[in-house]
Design brief:
two-stranded antiparallel ribbon; 9 strands
Amino acid sequence: MANHAHEHGHNHHDGHGGHPHDFAAANRAHFDEHAHKHTGVSHAHADQLAIRAIDAFRKAWPDLFDDERTTVLDYACGTGAVSRQLCQHVKSIVGVDISPGSVDIYNTQVSNQGLEPDEMKAVCLQLKGEPGELGDAKFDVIVCCASYHHFASIEDTTRVLASFLKPGGSLIVSDIRAAEDHHELFAPTHHHIVPHKHGLCEDAVRGAFESAGLVNFEMQDAFKAKLKGTKEEVQWFVVRGVKAAGAS
């Protein structure tokens, strides 16, 4: 998670003239360029969003987090704001991001904290849900904060993430709810990295989760915060879906 969000999608969206726009490549370039700038105000903004998201997750679903047992995948982890807030509540975290610069900073900060790689580490990888990825590891919980609006296809992203859950495991997401009048929430300067510039509506998120085979869908409003680009106050939600106990 960087600034207000971070991309890890691998899908395309139509751009000008009918040519596909590669949002994943655009986000990789954007966050590689800005990774080293995540200090001062920008770093504090990301940390504050991470604190509020993790607090909302733990308030909504406290039984998901056990510091002796819970294994976590932090998807689109950025420089590690979410992982740093979550690590004290779980056994281990693996961060995944497509930005090499962000992953380098994440792992440097982990080392500086004195943590071992088996406790917390990040890898630079574009997940596709194929055999052998992440050593075929499965996780109790997958978190994705402030990133779904960057994914060209939240359906494809959710399907890939569901494949990394243990049976009974949970995918939990925090992101920005679409406004009632569906106006654009993101500044035009960010449209090349944000396909869902109006935010996300519950029907779209529910459809993505259900099409990935996730059950027990829950979505609730969590907190309000201002977007850095427009200064508009937006509604953030948290959502959970569970991989059925008998699913492979």
